[in-house]
């Protein structure tokens, strides 16, 4: 890999072969969300989409509990509850779906795309939601497109729900015109502000045309073909990537745009594919890099040599471990991840300092034992674990905030660092007397 | 199939978690996919619990389906018992495991574990959270209660009672227990056992030692209390002390069952509610229209407080628990209120929009609706939200609870004095109704000025207001202006009047004044 000037040279030398790393495999009770969670942020990003989960009261309760705190407007999602009679096959599920979709469209005439989201119960009884989606699309075409994806807890963890949704869109992308010139698709839901920043950088680098998936609205879907280049903004998009690769697209291997270094290498991957010369790349990225590095300084002073333990949750753990260790000087005691996709994580693993223990999967009680025994200065974990760890004197950061806050790119590097430094600052700020 | 945007109750295993997490020495193993572990965050985030809930999820995945499942469940079972050493183990299936036809109870029995095991059979798709909590508590009591026990001879000792029903994630259960225990203490009665909250399996064994049972939350404790009455002949008190009058009824009933005389001062009442409600500033409350929605117990109690103790008019009374709907419907009829029994949020929303109350007493969901419609609201019932676990002591039950009800229901409304000043200085540039109540952070324009849902419900085209009539309407104090506008429009609609003139306005006024 070319070392561009922004690469952090003080840190431990990267391992040459990422595949050599030992990864602890754990299988046991877990404390993680299922993929349904994805629609909580996707419905905010895709402003004309409605997500209809076909599932149980548990699914509805989960969405309400996990999403309720984040929702300030009426949500564009709902659950179609499978009742005993439906499960026993006594009713026509199509009728139920038709009614629900009609009711939704009446209430929300602004909706242009509906996702029928499969859950554990709908998967177990083998409901054919793709057929239903096709049928409903033909009913409402061209005003509304109906797609299907499954995000059950049997097959997906947390962010993989976004992968499943994007995969459904990826299947629907039109073929690029034969002989079309090279184009870039950036994969992964990003807050609009981050998307706009990246768009400006790509423009300045002369990289284009660029499209972002998912977009804000249905319509204007990018074409895909042999001239399509993929740049993944999020690491958990394995299925979407597989589908687009099968349709001829070429993935540009890169670390993820987390932190200044990650962002530079990520942009560089696209710049190389577009043969942007080094001088131009440097000139375009220098202001962002400098701002990013400056923004990290204060946080690095607080976080340097502090020890952090990362519980598996969003699959952002490895890129974060790389950022925290290389750019903020933290010591990573353990980085857990629900899955480790070697190919998509290759560029990250080769940057990750040697000796950081990685865990794939989870046995939550054993992992908690290790965490408590290590007494880290900071723990990144899900909402179910945070307060109990605080109660034994550890300082925590909720991992879900990494998904809801803008963290990608140069301009957000400081904000990302602040997500980690703020809990530490708070611990120092509180004083309850003797 | 049923479309749910928000739901009032979770699945029944959430009820079981609320019982298990409230107790000591109990662990609950749920055969469920990993995603169902979200339930932990309800306890750790909403209730700010300091320890992990005593719940383990077997976390099966697609690849486990089939032969591996039993082994996975049994392995998890063994490890759970080894690690947590519970003195009572609950096992059960989530909705998905139930569909797969796995039998957690059978698998647990086959292991011969060194701990009592209760296999919960909670039909995931037919039942809901409160039912799950009630069934779980009933099974625990039935399984553990030592049937050879009976109350010790009275011989001048203080009466003993059990306090039944408080759980984790209950609406103010924590503080209600303290408040009701204080009331009982003042009457010379000892609480032998509070359950499920704070009780251990060993405590439950001794449940038969009490003279009688106090059912604080019938939704959760009624089946257990009925069984205890049959088995131990323990009378049960199901007068719920929610509100001033209800608290006095409760005291009278307890005194009767326990054979004690309540202190006079206590009967005279330790609550500020009656005087606060009598004092002239509260006159403004008279006849304000309120819509009430919640679990049956809280909704019924709120209706009584609203009508008898605050002088409000109940326009609608509803519940999401179908269990006691007959009682609620009868109560609504007595009050001349529109009854609603549903767990469909959209129906509740329509209902409130149609009734256009000045105050909504409901769950967090109705608070949402009220906020959107610009109507004042207060929360009176589960489902709960992080705000329903205040740092301060804030019971709903007993005399202190009545004080809390007075404050929390009337605070969102415009103060009496404030209303009068507003009317007097209507033309003052900052002291006018568009500024809203001074104590509310976001000045919500009140019903009359709010872009109310009348424009959103296109059923009948609203009649047009003639300029002169519109000006006259503007002179009516704003807190009754909304009502005047509605009544006049309805009057005009009923008579097919397309343009509302000054005459129509006063015709309507005299019509409704009859
Ligand atoms: S894990 Fe399965 S059953 Fe549970 S909420 Fe997720 S999809 Fe629904």
In short:
The complex is a heterodimer of chains A (434) and B (514). Chain A has 17 helices and 14 strands. Chain A is α/β, with parallel strands linked by helices and 434 residues long.
Describe the structure using short key phrases.
heterodimer; A: alpha/beta; Rossmann fold; globular; B: 514 residues; alpha/beta; four-stranded parallel β-sheet; binds iron/sulfur cluster
Structure description:
The complex is a heterodimer of chains A (434) and B (514). Chain A is α/β, with parallel strands linked by helices. Chain A is built from 17 helices and 14 strands. Chain A folds into three domains: 2-31 and 288-433, Nitrogenase molybdenum iron protein domain (Rossmann fold); 35-155, Rossmann fold (3-Layer(aba) Sandwich), CATH 3.40.50.1980; 183-280, Rossmann fold (3-Layer(aba) Sandwich), CATH 3.40.50. In chain A, strand 13 (378-381), helix 15 and strand 14 (396-398) form a beta-alpha-beta unit. Chain A is globular. Residues 1-6 and 9-18 of chain A have low confidence and may be disordered. By secondary structure, chain B is of the alpha/beta class. Helices cover 45% and strands 13% of the residues of chain B. Chain B is globular, with a radius of gyration of 26 Å. Chain B is built from 21 helices and 16 strands. In chain B, helix 1 (12-22) crosses helix 6. At the A-B interface, helix 2, strand 3, helix 3, helix 4 and helix 5 of A face strand 1, helix 2, helix 3 and helix 4 of B. Strand 3 of chain A pairs antiparallel with strand 1 of chain B. Iron/sulfur cluster sits between chains A (34, 36, 55-56, 58-59, 62, 119-120, 152-153) and B (33, 35-36, 95-96).
């Amino acid at each position: 890999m070319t070392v561009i000037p922004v690469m952090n040279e003080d840190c431990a030398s990267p391992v040459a072969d990422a595949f050599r790393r030992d990864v602890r495999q754990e299988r046991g009770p877990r404390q993680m969300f299922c993929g349904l969670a994805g629609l909580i942020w996707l419905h905010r990003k895709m402003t004309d989409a409605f997500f209809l989960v076909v599932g149980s009261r548990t699914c509805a309760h989960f969405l309400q509990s996990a999403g309720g705190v984040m929702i300030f407007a009426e949500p564009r999602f709902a659950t179609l509850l499978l009742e005993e009679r439906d499960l026993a096959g006594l009713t026509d599920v199509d009728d139920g779906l038709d009614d629900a979709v009609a009711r939704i469209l009446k209430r929300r005439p602004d909706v242009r795309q509906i996702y029928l989201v499969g859950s554990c119960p709908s998967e177990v009884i083998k409901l054919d939601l793709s057929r239903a989606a096709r049928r409903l699309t033909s009913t409402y075409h061209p005003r509304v497109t109906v797609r299907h994806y499954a995000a059950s807890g049997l097959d997906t963890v947390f962010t993989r729900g976004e992968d499943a949704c994007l995969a459904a869109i990826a299947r629907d992308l039109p073929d690029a015109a034969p002989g079309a010139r090279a184009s870039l698709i950036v994969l992964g839901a990003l807050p609009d502000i981050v998307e706009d920043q990246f768009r400006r950088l790509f423009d300045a680098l002369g990289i284009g045309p660029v499209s972002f998936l998912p977009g804000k609205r249905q319509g204007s879907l990018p074409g895909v073909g042999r001239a399509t280049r993929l740049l993944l903004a999020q690491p958990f998009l394995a299925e979407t990537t597989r589908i687009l690769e099968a349709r001829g697209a070429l993935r540009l291997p890169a670390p993820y745009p987390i932190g200044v270094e990650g962002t530079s290498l990520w942009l560089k991957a696209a710049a190389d594919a577009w043969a942007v010369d080094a001088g131009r790349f440097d000139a375009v990225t220098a202001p962002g890099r400098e701002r990013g590095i400056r923004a990290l300084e204060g946080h690095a002073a607080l976080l340097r040599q502090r020890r952090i333990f990362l519980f598996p949750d969003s699959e952002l753990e490895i890129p974060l471990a790389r950022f925290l260790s290389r750019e903020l000087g933290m010591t990573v005691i353990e980085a857990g991840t629900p899955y480790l996709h070697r190919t998509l994580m290759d560029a990250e693993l080769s940057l990750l300092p040697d000796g950081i223990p990685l865990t794939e999967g989870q046995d939550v009680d054993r992992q908690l034992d290790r965490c408590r025994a290590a007494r880290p200065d900071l723990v990144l974990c899900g909402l179910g674990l945070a307060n109990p760890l605080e109660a034994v004197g550890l300082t925590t950061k909720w991992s879900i905030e990494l998904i809801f806050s803008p963290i990608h790119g140069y301009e957000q590097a400081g904000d990302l660092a602040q997500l980690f430094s703020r809990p530490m600052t708070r611990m120092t700020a509180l004083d309850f007397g003797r | 199939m049923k479309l749910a945007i928000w739901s009032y109750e979770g699945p029944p295993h959430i009820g079981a978690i609320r019982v298990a997490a409230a107790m000591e020495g109990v662990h609950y193993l749920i055969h469920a996919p990993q995603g169902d572990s979200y339930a932990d965050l309800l306890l750790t985030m909403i209730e700010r619990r300091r320890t992990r809930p005593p719940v383990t999820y077997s976390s099966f995945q697609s690849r486990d389906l089939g032969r591996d499942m039993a082994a996975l469940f049994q392995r998890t079972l063994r490890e759970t018992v080894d690690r947590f050493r519970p003195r009572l183990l609950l096992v059960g299936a989530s909705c998905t495991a139930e569909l797969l036809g796995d039998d957690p109870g059978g698998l647990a029995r086959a292991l011969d574990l060194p701990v009592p095991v209760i296999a919960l059979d909670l039909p995931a798709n037919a039942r809901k959270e409160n039912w799950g909590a009630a069934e779980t508590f009933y099974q625990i009591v039935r399984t553990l209660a030592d049937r050879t026990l009976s109350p010790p001879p009275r011989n001048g000792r203080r009466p003993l009672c059990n306090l039944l029903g408080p759980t984790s994630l209950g609406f103010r259960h924590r503080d209600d227990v303290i408040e009701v225990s204080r009331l009982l203490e003042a009457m010379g009665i000892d609480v032998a056992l509070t359950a499920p909250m704070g009780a251990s399996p060993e405590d439950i064994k001794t449940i038969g030692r009490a003279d009688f049972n106090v059912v604080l939350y019938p939704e959760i404790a009624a089946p257990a209390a009925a069984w205890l009455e049959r088995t131990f002949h323990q009378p049960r008190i199901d007068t719920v002390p929610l509100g001033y009058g209800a608290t006095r009824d409760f005291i009278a009933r307890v005194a009767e069952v326990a054979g004690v005389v309540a202190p006079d001062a206590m009967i005279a009442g330790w609550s500020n509610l009656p005087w606060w409600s009598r004092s002239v500033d509260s006159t403004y409350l008279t006849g304000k229209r309120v819509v009430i929605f919640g679990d049956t117990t809280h909704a019924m109690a709120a209706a009584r407080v609203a009508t008898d103790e605050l002088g409000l008019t109940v326009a609608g009374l509803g519940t999401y628990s179908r269990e006691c709907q007959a009682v609620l419907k009868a109560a609504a009829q007595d009050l001349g209120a529109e009854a609603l029994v549903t767990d469909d949020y959209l129906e509740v929303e329509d209902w409130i929009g149609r009734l256009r109350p000045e105050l909504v007493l409901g769950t967090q969901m109705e608070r949402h609706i009220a906020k959107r419609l610009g109507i004042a609201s207060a929360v009176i019932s589960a489902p709960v939200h992080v705000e329903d676990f205040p740092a301060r002591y804030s019971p709903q039950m007993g005399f202190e609870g009545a004080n809390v009800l007075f404050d929390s229901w009337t605070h969102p409304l415009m103060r009496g004095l404030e209303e009068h000043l507003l009317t007097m200085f209507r033309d003052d540039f900052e002291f006018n109704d568009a500024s809203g109540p001074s104590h509310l952070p976001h000045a919500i324009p009140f019903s009359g000025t709010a872009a109310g849902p009348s424009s959103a419900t296109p059923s009948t085209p609203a009649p047009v207001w003639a300029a002169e009539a519109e000006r006259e309407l503007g002179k009516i104090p704003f807190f009754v202006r909304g009502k005047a506008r509605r009544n006049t429009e309805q009057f005009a609609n009923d008579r097919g009047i397309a343009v509302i003139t000054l005459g129509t306005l006063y015709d309507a006024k005299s019509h409704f004044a009859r």
